[in-house]
């Protein structure tokens, strides 16, 4: 018991690794995240925090630290699109929950960045699951606009913010109707009015007064100016086919909008139109129930069919019980669909891309994150098996070439309660 | 951003504060107990097995649900019952349909001990929200079966994607005593009675912890604390004992249920998260003279696996949900494995209309988490977590939940290892009737609600 305590104390006292290592993972099955099939007996080389090479036939630089990947898989870190990571400790404990603000006078101006907490338990748990990057969105409070989300890394250090104000989030459909005062009509009116006020606010000379008949605060209007000129993507929460068409039609009124659909449960019914508009989609694929009237056509084949129609689709929307570490399971289920007559799924490579490179591309980090390609960030995960399989888990995680601790409140609890022996001291002394 | 339906259901429970109307018990229902008994079982099951053909599943890997595994196995069923389970040497009688299971897997039908299908159906509109009678902290008088909507499309998804053949529908957890649960066969039916599992005992749904004290505390009413929770519960049991010892001159629906528990005829399914609180509940059960059959959710069960084993109480749990409320903060993915290590009974449950479609996958996740800390639980035992153990804790373990001679032919043929993410049910039989066949679009139920709607009959 004493030895165990001593080791535990040493582990706690050990400094966290903060320097990027140059390293190579050798003889592993390599999945680069680009949509292709995994390659056996491959190598990944990381130098200076960046990927240098990945695949078969890659030479291992002399003298570099090598990690034997025999029997293991090596992949880019997972990218979780549209999460609540870093904004909440416990959903049901209001004081710990910064996901929404229904009593704030602000909406579009809300910016999650200053509230992000890299020490959140959910960051550590997600990192243990192989998630290295994420986009973070707020929930709506008192408006169709939830505010501005961010892109983060999940490294065990203080510098988590990669891109603040990475996108604006607006809720349309049934939820948007509720926030707008009771109807989709009101939501679309609120949206158009807000964009008009944004345009006017942006055109004013510094210090000039706005006209009296405005609904938005100045901060909200100015925040939306970035949406109108296309410099900030607009994520639109929408489900029903008809609602998706109405969203796509916004481009004719506001041509510079950089739209991303979030949800799109009935997207497969309008796949060709979404593809033609070149609007990407972030969705939770296994939702197959008519949970609302706006999702009557819900099907697990949604992703596969949209993909077939030419839509760029990422798996995402991880919040609450839908944990980011479940992304591989969601992707794996899409592969399972390929064996079901009448269903449309994804190949393994496509499914894995949907939780790595595709969400990274949609989030503005194509080629830099979610992929093992020269010049990409050194986010590397070594798995003890096929990463989409239920039995697999990461054994090593690097972010920007920095080896990460895989420990959390959960891992400490599991160590404490690995046995229930309290013969000599209570469990409180096992730490 | 929007959250899942399950999350919305949870958060709606968090935000309660509406005005309270104390349920006036129907005290004027002055019926003699013997009159009630003379009327027979009310709302009795009218379920009858659908026609099936004598079937032989040949060549698959068979998990019997009780820890047994047979390579290249043979399963025979006829007239709705399992006739024989064995290896390749088992002869297929003449007249049997032979289903080639080479490369495939056979398990008992999947069973979910904790579902709200039908009482919180899809679509999840307010008009369909019938799962929680939150007008009094104790409502043992309500019966979930009176809320179940048999046209909930969730039943068909559970059958087709999850291989679920039986499930227990519970009232919600807003009340300390939420009411009677009902056990159903997962068969499409015009009526709830047509789904009711013949001979299944009733269960009383109880809930401890945050939910009841939050719901009623927000109304400035008892209970507003955990000690209030216990006080209200204990008084209810004391009152029920008096009723039980009395002449039953005035019939009381709620006390009928509690009397059934005290007599051991009705099981107790107790929603409870924290280890210390489960220990308190076990003492309350001892004090009042009843038995808790299973703790549900039980995210801290791993802290008291020894106590649960000693008390012969199952833990019905998720694989790794955690952190959504304070009492779930200590949830860990190794919960099931550490319980198994202590020899305690593990059941994997869903409490979710999506999760019920993947109970096998949840079990596999929990198994893998155990393996990584050196707790290696064989696949055949893990299959029991979502078949036999669930049946046992629902009081139907003698009838279904395992592939044993004479039991109901509730059977799933999987197109691969059910503990793999890449596998799905290929065929599902309930009492020997084939109710799903992936290769036959006509063997796939479509609820009334979905007819003529976008995506009707689509592969979901």
From TrEMBL, chain A:
Alphabetical UniProt keywords: Hydrolase, Signal
Gene Ontology MF term list: hydrolase activity, acting on carbon-nitrogen (but not peptide) bonds
Domain called Amidohydrolase: residue spans: 296-402
Secreted keyword on record: no
Pfam families: Amidohydro_3 (PF07969)
Top-level lineage group: Bacteria
Signal peptide: 1-20
Statement: the UniProt record of this protein carries the keyword Hydrolase: yes
Protein name: Amidohydrolase
UniProtKB/TrEMBL annotation, chain B:
Keywords of this entry: Hydrolase, Signal
GO molecular function: hydrolase activity, acting on carbon-nitrogen (but not peptide) bonds
Pfam families, per the entry: Amidohydro_1
Boundaries of every Amidohydrolase-related domain copy: 340-431
Region named Disordered: 439-460
Signal sequence, start to end: 1-26
SUPFAM superfamilies: Composite domain of metallo-dependent hydrolases, Metallo-dependent hydrolases
Tree of life domain: Bacteria
Protein name, per record: Amidohydrolase
